[in-house]
């Protein structure tokens, strides 16, 4: 009989970002009131699961998303820097046409290679650190479940790597909405399935589209 282990990759809830900047790894960006509600919904959803390992990116929004889950499961929240948001040159800037960074010619050299990408941390490096965190969490939770709270691009990159898809992609195609779960199910060390769910879907119509992730 093989041992079943599940590693859930949880994207954090909505962030309070009134200036609409790409906040990236900047400190001081916390969950909005709606984001806190999303985190509680996910905690309620996972409360009955056999979760024995709970880790989060060191950024505030990830730690705050993990907090109600820690309370529901009576687990400490570990901090794993490998789960942090992807590095991005546009961090702290508004990104887009009009008054955004795309309207400034000085930023264009950062956009020449979308396959790497040229504007930030290489996809290969994101995939490597995320899957290392997944492997360690899988071992620590063997026979049970683990929850890793991270960010949209790291979660999506990890998913594309385990599904053996190329890592470059159109950001608009990401299936990784706020407070969503990307769940990796293993039999021993073999990946058997990848499933996606949105426990906080009922709250999403109110959620603003943010420039961060």
UniProtKB/TrEMBL annotation:
CDD domains per the UniProt record, alphabetical: HP_PGM_like
The name this protein goes by in its record: Broad specificity phosphatase PhoE
PANTHER family assigned: BROAD-SPECIFICITY PHOSPHATASE YOR283W-RELATED, PHOSPHOGLYCERATE MUTASE
GO CC terms of this entry: cytoplasm
Alphabetized GO MF terms: phosphatase activity
SMART domains xrefs: PGAM
Pfam family, one: His_Phos_1
């Amino acid at each position: 009989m093989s041992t079943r282990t599940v590693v859930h990759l949880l994207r954090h809830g909505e962030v309070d970002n009134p200036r609409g900047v790409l906040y990236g790894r900047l400190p001081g960006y916390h969950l909005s009131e709606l984001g806190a509600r999303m985190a509680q919904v996910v905690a309620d959803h996972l409360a009955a699961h056999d979760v024995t390992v709970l880790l989060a990116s060191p950024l505030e929004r990830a730690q705050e998303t993990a907090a109600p889950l820690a309370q529901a499961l009576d687990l400490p929240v570990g901090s794993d820097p490998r789960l942090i948001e992807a590095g991005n040159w546009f961090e702290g800037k508004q990104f887009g046409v009009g008054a955004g960074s795309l309207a400034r010619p000085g930023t264009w050299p950062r956009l020449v290679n979308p396959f790497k990408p040229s504007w930030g941390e290489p996809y290969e490096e994101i995939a490597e650190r995320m899957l290392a965190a997944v492997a360690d969490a899988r071992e620590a939770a063997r026979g049970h479940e683990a929850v890793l709270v991270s960010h949209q691009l790291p979660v999506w990159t990890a998913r594309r790597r385990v599904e053996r898809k190329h890592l470059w992609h159109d950001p608009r195609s990401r299936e990784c909405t706020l407070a969503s779960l990307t769940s990796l199910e293993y039999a021993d060390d073999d990946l058997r399935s990848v499933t996606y769910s949105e426990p906080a879907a009922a709250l999403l119509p109110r959620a603003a589209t943010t420039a961060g992730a």
